[in-house]
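Quick one: co-fold with S-adenosyl-L-homocysteine.
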Amino acid sequence: MIEKSGKISIYNLSREDIFEWSKSAGISTFYAEKIWLNLYRNKITDFSKTLDLREDIVELLEQTFYFNKIDLIEVQKASDETMKFLFQLADHSHIETVLMEHKFGKSICVTTQIGCNIGCNFCASGLKPKKRDLETSEMIAQILAVEKYLKENEGEKITHVVVMGIGEPFDNYDNVIKFLEIINDDKGMAIGSRHITVSTSGLAPRILGFSKENIRANLAISLHAPNDLLRSKLMKINKTYPLKQLFDAIYKYIEVTNKRVSFEYIMINNFNDGVEEARELLALLEPIKKYAYVNLIPYNPVLEIGFERSSDERIKAFFEFLIQHKVRCVMRREHGTDIDAACGQLRSKYLN
Ligand code: SAH
Ligand code: SF4
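Sure, here it is.
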């Protein structure tokens, strides 16, 4: 992101970029390292606050870069401790970020776009067309702003990142990959790749690309239906990348990475939640059973849309069928339902 003044947002740069820029500016690697540590360890938001950089370097940094403006507008807390943050960005767009509590720590659900063009017909985020992609720096800023809030209020650290907020991460691929590199860097935020999950609606070519990236983040596929007929009714992306093409990409991903793949499956009443669909899902996952983890998610009804959540009995029957047939499967706990803060439940309902 380049401001009118011609300055660049510092959070768009990976460590490698900082080193490259430093080299071109005649700054030694010793100081390049210090710039990085100041940003992601000391979390400075003003170059003049650094204590260990030479004055001429501080001046050059100030002339070249700026810190993102991200204003916290509102925080909502659900009965289960899930928190939803509403932010305003420099162009006055509004985005939402969610923080979830788990036994294993705190995970932050990051938004990658303003709106979403994939337009799945069960999803609140897809109700509005995409206004624009978020910059890497705007994803980083979400984490830093939530971290700052936590520090000021209770002091617990974010341990996991899920890229499951508003938007399709693989439709903003390069910015998302750079974001992952920055948060994963072991001299910076150091969020381990096993603690990072990216969820996609199934852009098959991008899944192949993702398998070759250095960063080994977890992959989640929003599957939601076990055959093309049903899936196309929910997700028009399935017409572009039908199940055969999607699964060919997933097989390759597994072959290259040897990593597990999560499958998100929202349970919609009398639509995709019968034992017949469980049987079809079993057949679909059979070749990759060892690698597949199914998350059954009770559908969060979206007022404008009209689908209903499956009953607990139907979810349980579906779950038990899969378990009996040795498919790894969990019934996922909902988060923040009372404040519309489940991942995928987000909507830029405030303005825009
Ligand atoms: N665009 C990406 C990531 C964001 S959506 C994707 O589709 O994977 C994150 C997850 O929430 C997806 O699995 C999505 O299908 C799911 N989701 C969307 N709307 C939902 C709703 N109303 N209830 C439950 N899950 C929903
Ligand atoms: Fe976009 Fe994901 Fe919602 Fe589909 S489910 S509209 S891809 S955010």
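If it helps, The chain has a mean pLDDT of 93.
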